[in-house]
Design a protein that fits this description.
The complex is a heterodimer of chains A (about 350) and B (about 550). With about 350 residues, chain A is α+β, with helices and mostly antiparallel strands. Chain A is about 20% helix and about 35% strand. Classes of the chains: A alpha+beta (about 350), B mainly alpha (about 550).
């Protein structure tokens, strides 16, 4: 049974013309980490606040641990939902010490509150004087306190709003992994919001892509990347190349050359071949491959992108390893080891 | 399955409390507006035929005169201290705000005393040079005199706002202007002044509200305005409905002023709020200019604060033995107590209104809570009348139904309750604004975080919000405290029989030819008034950095 279930959630702010959240339904299973990904204005933060009880939907229902917490005009208020949340700005209480911050939400009936708080702080790996105040900590340390404060009362679900956005690039990879491990260790169900696809793909078990308040696709990262349901989702993880092709009995004719493919006989009219830069390979030798003129090589350290043009000036981008040396305007040969076929018109 | 009570999402008890407060606070204002559509009282035709034109003319002339001179005085000095370096500049930044602590009526009779036959100037001229002048040195007990007195007490409003606007203008903007070949003067007229215009007009609007509120100065100088008209109708003619009618007209004046101010401001936000913009560098000037600038500021400070202040001190030395007795201390104690009570109540109500706003999912809550702060724009005499009417009818109802009119007397009207209520209506905005900015500064997330940790909204307010905005609450109480202490017209109308505050005591003594004696109470009002002024200045300076 899912721990969290959203059914047909709609939300519009004030006089706004469009819905911030548009007929969204999904389930979250116990112990899973779900990422809500989208550009700003996609409704991802609104969705998080609806689950937390900080906003109320215009329509739809939400249930948590089998209990309906939102239905029609009725709601379980935020303070009674047992939902943990880490805010983007952490929202630590500046007038309380670290320990007091973490103790704040632990109920007296749970036993020794200070003891629980200390254990939680150790769990998140904060090795500091717990009597310090939030402003005496670095940004990364503050985030750990915020995480500890949110999970200490043992919430039914943990929500995080852009948890990685305030960290610099160097720290990010490390923190992503650590937070994932902490969450997995506690077995808590977590939902986090991000605009960064790298955050989502590397940290979450499942990813939900939102666009203009609509849920586009929700699935494991691999499926989203390999089998995007629509062009928006596909392009969200980086640009895809498009080549026009004419099918024949044994392959596709393109402006870069012929691709042998038995699938081709299933198509009658012109098609588009869609592929990511890393789904192609630039090779040394001539042969049964595609070819074109190199127009631009961009070096990125971990890889380089080679732009190849056909005779009409139509371009595709292929990713190669960084060690290869290319001359611009040299002729390049490449092949595609994976592509999607879509009808062109 | 766990059972937790589900509630309607739009309801919380804070919204209920807030609506209740709003209803009560708005009653006097709506009473007055409503009365505008009923017929005026018996003496209305007399007033309309013989006095109304004079009220209009005088009120308008004083408004225009004060607006013009506060503009000239305020903007000139603000520009000098914000863009030039000259001896004493640092001190003038706050010295020129001090006149705000001088209530107009005290300034008025201090100047009358200064220029009087027995005053220090004439005495000095007589004793040193044998110069004899008949009567007063300069007769200021007239309309130009009222304009002079109100201008020198109110120009700091324009000075303060214009200065903070000049300071906020980005350095780059003015540098761009000079790189384009404009000199300092052209930069002022073409860039700085137009950019500061919305702020300056807002400052003049504030000063104008104070002019419309003033009773003491015009009364003392014998100039008939709407405020004195309300008093005359209320006390001399005993005609409440005419007083209401005059009050309603005055209120229309105020709303017109507010409306003009808001359309000139529009949606413009000239001053950049970008924290990266450093204030412009102050320019070093020639020695001659330094003398001139220091001279201008010194003159203004002497006239608007220092000389009248010295005069008050002299009077206090002359009379304190006679005046300062047990009764006087009791008076101080009572005035301070009442002012502090009002301060605490105003801040308490502001917290409830703003917390309801903070938790409410609806935008309209914001617009209706603003109604609670309207009182600051309404002249005290108008509010007094607006409070009196509902309370009188409430009393009447009590006597008619419960006490069957055997006992005569007052139940709510004419008591401290009425006075406190009216103060709250009048000064709600003064306490509301600091509390509002306090809430804004700490943001909503700490509050949400606490509620998500399972703490109810009321406990969250107590444990998180209030401790974090402690200093805002304190400055709210302090600002209201000082305003209540200075308040005159409203107090004169609503005070219980024989009840005195420092302000009414000072005014009564001054009008009864005991000017020197009145200085004792006046001095206390001014000294307490200076404390928040220094606070206020610090707040503006902080934004500068």
């Amino acid at each position: 049974m899912p721990i969290l279930s959203l059914q047909h959630i709609n939300k519009k702010y004030g006089q706004a013309k469009d819905f911030a959240v548009n007929d969204i339904s999904f389930n979250v299973t116990e112990g899973e980490i779900l990422a809500l990904v989208g550009e700003s204005g996609s409704g991802k933060t609104t969705l998080l606040r609806l689950i937390a009880g900080l906003e109320h939907p215009d329509q739809g229902s939400i249930s948590l641990s089998g209990q309906v917490i939102v239905e029609g005009k009725k709601t379980v208020p935020a303070h009674a939902r047992k939902v943990g949340m880490v805010f983007q700005d952490y929202a630590l209480f500046p007038h309380l010490t670290i320990l007091e911050n973490v103790m704040f939400g632990i109920q007296k009936s749970k036993g020794n509150r200070a003891q629980i708080a200390k254990e939680t702080l150790q769990l998140v790996g904060l090795n500091e004087d717990f009597n310090k105040y939030p402003h005496q900590l670095s940004g990364g340390q503050q985030q750990r306190v915020a995480l500890a404060r949110a999970i200490a009362p043992n919430p039914r679900i943990l929500l995080m709003d852009e948890p990685f956005s305030n960290l610099d690039a160097m720290l990010k990879d490390q923190v992503r992994e650590e937070i994932r491990q902490i969450i997995k260790k506690t077995g808590i169900t977590a939902i986090f919001v991000t605009h960064d696809t790298k955050d989502a793909l590397s940290t979450a078990d499942r990813v939900a892509i939102l666009h203009k308040g609509f849920l586009q696709q929700i699935d494991i990262p691999k499926v989203l990347y390999e089998n995007p349901i629509n062009p928006y989702v596909a392009n969200f993880f980086g640009k895809r190349n498009e080549i026009l092709a004419t099918p024949s009995e044994d392959g596709f004719y393109t402006s870069f050359g012929f691709i042998a493919d038995v699938e081709a006989k299933n198509y009658k009219a012109a098609v588009k071949l869609l592929f990511r830069p890393e789904h192609g390979e630039v090779v040394q030798r001539k042969g049964q491959q595609l070819s074109g003129k190199i127009v631009k090589v961009s070096y990125f350290g971990s890889h380089q992108l080679v732009k190849i043009s056909d005779d009409e000036g139509f371009r595709v981008t292929i990713r190669t390893n960084p060690g290869r040396v290319f001359d611009e305007s040299e002729r390049a040969f490449f092949y595609l080891w994976k592509y999607d076929i879509e009808e062109a018109f | 399955m766990e059972i937790i009570d589900k509630k309607y999402y739009w309801w919380n008890k804070w919204t209920g409390f807030a609506l209740l407060i709003l209803l009560v606070v708005a009653t006097p204002l709506f009473t007055i507006l409503f009365k505008l559509f009923t017929s005026p009282g018996g003496s209305w035709s007399h007033i309309a035929n013989n006095l109304l034109f004079g009220y209009f003319q005088n009120t308008l002339l004083i408004l225009l005169g004060v607006a013009f001179s506060t503009f000239v005085l305020g903007v000139t000095t603000a520009w000098l201290v914000s863009s030039y370096e000259f001896p004493g500049r640092k001190y003038f930044e706050w010295l020129l705000i001090l006149p705000l602590g001088f209530p107009g009526y005290i300034m008025a009779y201090t100047y009358v005393g200064l220029l009087d036959y027995t005053g220090p100037i004439q005495t000095f001229l007589r004793n040193s040079f044998g110069i004899q002048i008949k009567g007063s040195l300069i007769d200021i007990m007239n309309l130009p005199g009222a304009i002079f007195i109100l201008s020198i007490t109110l120009f700091p409003y324009v000075f303060l706002i214009a200065r903070s606007s000049f300071l906020q203008q980005s350095k780059t903007m003015q540098e761009a202007s000079s790189l384009l070949g404009a000199n300092r003067a052209k930069t002022f007229f073409k860039v700085a002044l137009p950019m500061a215009r919305p702020a300056i007009v807002a400052g003049i609007a504030l000063a104008s509200m104070e002019v419309l509120n003033d009773y003491g100065t015009v009364k003392y100088f014998g100039v008939n305005t709407f405020t004195t008209g309300i008093f005359r109708a209320w006390f001399s003619m005993g005609d409440a409905t005419t007083a209401i009618y005059l009050a309603a007209i005055l209120m229309v004046f105020v709303f017109a002023l507010l409306y003009l101010e808001s359309i000139q401001r529009g949606n413009r936000q000239y001053s950049s709020v970008n924290g990266l913009n450093k204030p412009q560098a102050r320019k070093e000037v020639s020695t001659k200019s330094k003398f001139l600038y220091t001279g201008i500021c010194t003159m203004l400070f002497l006239i608007s604060f220092f000389i009248p202040f010295l005069q008050l001190l002299q009077w206090v030395f002359m009379t304190y033995e006679k005046v300062v007795n047990q009764e006087f201390f009791l008076l101080i104690f009572r005035s301070f107590g009442l002012a502090a009570l009002v301060g605490v109540l105003v801040v308490f109500f502001s917290i409830i209104l703003l917390y309801a706003l903070r938790l409410s999912p609806f935008k309209w809550v914001k617009s209706i809570t603003k109604i609670a702060t309207l009182g600051y724009a309404i002249p005290g005499a108008v509010i007094a009348v607006g409070v009196m009417i509902p309370l009188l009818s409430f009393d009447k109802w009590i006597y008619d139904t419960i006490l069957s009119s055997r006992v005569a007397g007052l139940f709510l009207s004419g008591t401290l309750f009425a006075l406190t209520f009216a103060y709250i209506v009048r000064f709600m905005a003064v306490g509301y604004n600091p509390v509002e900015s306090g809430f804004q500064k700490i943001g909503i997330h700490v509050n949400e975080a606490s509620r998500l940790l399972g703490i109810r909204s009321s406990k969250t307010l107590w444990k998180i919000d209030l401790p974090l905005i402690k200093s805002s609450l304190f400055s709210g109480i302090l600002l209201v405290f000082v305003d209540v202490l200075k308040e005159l017209p409203l107090t004169l109308i609503l005070r219980p029989f024989n009840y005195q505050t420092l302000a009414t005591k000072a005014f009564d003594m001054a009008t009864n030819e005991m000017i020197a004696e009145s200085a004792n109470a006046a001095l206390i009002i001014i000294l307490t008034g200076i404390i928040p002024i220094i606070f206020l200045n610090r707040m503006i300076k902080k934004r500068e950095i």
